[in-house]
Amino acid sequence: MAAEPASAAWIKFGAVEIDTLGHRLFVDGEEVGLERKAFAVLVLLAREPGRVLSRDEILDVVWGHSHVTPSVLSRVIALLRHTLGESGEECRYLHTVHGVGFRLDAQVRFAASREELVADSTFPAAGPASASAPVRIIDAASLPVTPATRPAAYSQPGRRRRIAWRLAAGIVALLLVAILLGHQFVRHPAATVPVADLKSVAVLPFENLSTDENNAYFASGMQDMILTELVGIGGLKVISRTSTEKYPSHPEDARTIAHQLGVATLLEGTVQRSGNQVLINVQLIDANSGNHLWAKAYTRTLDNVFNVEGEVAQNVAEALKVQLTSAESARIDKVPTSNAAAYDLYLQAAAHANRAYDDPALSSSELPLAISLYQQALDKDPRFAMAEAAMARAHMQMYFFGPDRTNTRLAQAKTAADRALAMQPGLGQAHYALGLYDYWGHRDYAGATTQLELARQALPNSATVELLIASVARRQGRWDEAVTLFRSATVLDPHSEFAFSQLGVTYESLHRYAEAEQAYAAAMAVSRNPAAERISLAFNRLMWKGDTEPLRSALAALAPGSDTYAGNVMAMYFQHWLARDYAAVVKVAEADTAENWDDTDNVVLPRRLYLAWALQATGDTAKASAAYAEVEASTRAALIERPDDADLHLALGFAYAGLGRKPEAVAEGERAVALMPVTEDALTGVDMLAYQAQLYVRVGQPDQAIALIERVLAMPSGVILSSEILRLDPFWDPLRDDPRFKTLLSKYAISG
């Protein structure tokens, strides 16, 4: 029995078939991509055949009559006529009732499925509507603007021939692309995605079809820009890029991948760029059925490619029945820039920035390139707010992980973020950058929370924002909340090694080593470079069991010259230190070229301070003293610019201790603790207490050292100190025979 017109999933008239739920149109059996507003107008007219719908009625239903002129509807009607193979003079289906509106005249059938339409013999066969057929695309933007009072202008023979030629050329080009792709849209069956996740999507890596491999950044950049738009839609669940990048662009088993990611749909795409021409094919796949929910091809030049990501986001939301808020619609409708060169430079910069964000060890090598390209983009378009926000974030990551802890770097980040918000108020990426500025730059966790909540409002699906909010909660000592937030971030980013790794750090800090091991193991399982996570797992085993072998094995497996090798120099130093191989410790410190090393909680100390400790352990007091003197001079100079930097005061305290200036050493250590108290930073504040205990050992004050050690062990400090590491680390040898130290080791012994 035919479905009611208002609820029909399929509509058919003549050789035209409309899949209203899947947002698909077939003409003579060939799928035709149609912009979403034109599709809505066609469905509206087809549901009431023979009735004249006024212009105002159509504008109200389809556009809400907001900021739309009648000429927009005239353009859409012209687009529909060309799609249906008619013109202003030769109207088979669509008729204009001058001064009133439009009417669709046809024998229309409504059905719940396409099978019902095909089974009805009263209608001529429309030919195979295979999902693997090439999609013909017609875009209203390519049609000439015609005043509403002159619809007959489209009947001019010369103009019809020119448009028909362009359309035919476009169809041939898309057919060639389809043949080259050999792309199969039929999916193999697998597990069904839970119903609760129906309004969810994962954007798979876009395939680069350009003959020039150097254009790969453009394909990944388009994926990133579309993902950025989707992340801002609150009614969707959107999976982070870091969880999708390991998958192929067009997987055979879409259901399994969707199940692994916890989504119902996958967005696939290809990008082909040749000179100034760009062809972008995008399709939204229902992972459960393998059907297309929506598909479109965009043929653009670099000068008008900017609105593609917004249109894709709108169509995905519409296909998944997600109602956009007015704020979301306004944001999506805003193009980031209209300057082709600026846009291209921005995408190039993003490729470098993403590599650094995925692996902070690459910050020093990748982010300067990204920052330079962002600045070049801004030189082309000073109003490019997204580029300003991205540059602010890059500056802050350089500050924290570079580490380039200078006031200049901080000022550059703040200036860029403020400019971004001045140009585009409410920009989530700019609020995120300011959250980093408050958090990493000033340890202002209240200010960071305010900025990050604003970022979360604009980017409700951002795992990155969620991770930073979790990190701030941890710094504020809200440990249980931090665990919950890190876990929720893994829902939006289920294959994020960073999310699982930070969950591991949180458990390890709480001395919950068994749970930390599970989290680190999960991080290692999803990592594309598991060597780094294997080292984190080994450190957890070291703090928990006092077992040094996993760390030695993990470090020995690193390839010299690799990024992971370079990023774990400090771990190599520590491994040799625990083995009491001080000559090897000296070699590690001398061979590295970094000015500073930062520990697990991002306490930054000069590399030459570590060298001085190693030289002193070998008995080379002369070279050690010279190194301590260098650290003193450079640190005192840096304190002129940053007098309230806790790390600098700590470094100066250790330099004074090495030079035998004990009262000054203790005073600087206490100053560092005062600047970074546990009450203001539950993570690094505890680290500072542990370092102060080391200072007391170095100046020969065991009473104060032991009292501080007990205080630290009683806190969430499992990444810094544990009874097992106290047994192993030769640094604590001066306390080994003290009964109070032995009592501490027994009192805080780890069970399990």
How would you sum up this structure, described in words?
56% of the residues lie in helices and 10% in strands. It has a six-stranded mixed sheet. Mean pLDDT is 85; it is low at 121-196. It has 33 helices and 17 strands. Strand 3 and strand 4 form a beta hairpin. Helix 11 runs parallel beside helix 13 (385-401).
Low-confidence stretches: 121-196
Question: What topology, given as strand order, has the largest sheet?
Answer: 8-1-2-3-4-9
Structural class per helix/strand content? alpha+beta
| Count of extended strands | 17
Helix content: 55-70%
Radius of gyration based on Cα positions: 31 Å
Strand content: 5-15%
Distance between the termini: 67 Å
Query: What is the number of helical segments per DSSP (H or I, 4+ residues)?
Result: 33
Shape category = elongated
Q: Name the average pLDDT.
A: 85
Largest sheet: 6 strands, mixed
Keywords:
6-stranded mixed beta sheet, 752 residues, elongated, alpha+beta, 33 helices
List the SSEs and their pairings.
Blueprint: E1 10-13, E2 16-19, E3 24-27, E4 30-34, H1 36-47, E5 53-54, H2 55-63, H3 70-83, E6 94-97, E7 101-104, E8 109-111, H4 114-119, E9 136-138, H5 157-181, E10 200-203, E11 207-208, H6 216-231, E12 237-238, H7 241-244, H8 254-261, E13 265-274, E14 277-286, E15 292-301, H9 308-319, H10 326-333, H11 340-358, H12 363-380, H13 385-401, H14 407-423, H15 428-442, H16 445-458, H17 463-475, H18 479-492, H19 497-509, H20 513-526, H21 530-545, H22 549-556, H23 563-567, H24 569-578, H25 582-591, E16 596-598, E17 604-606, H26 607-618, H27 621-641, H28 646-658, H29 662-675, H30 684-698, H31 702-713, H32 723-728, H33 739-747
Parallel strand pairs: 4-9, 10-12, 10-13, 11-13
Antiparallel strand pairs: 1-2, 1-8, 2-3, 3-4, 5-7, 6-7, 13-14, 14-15, 16-17
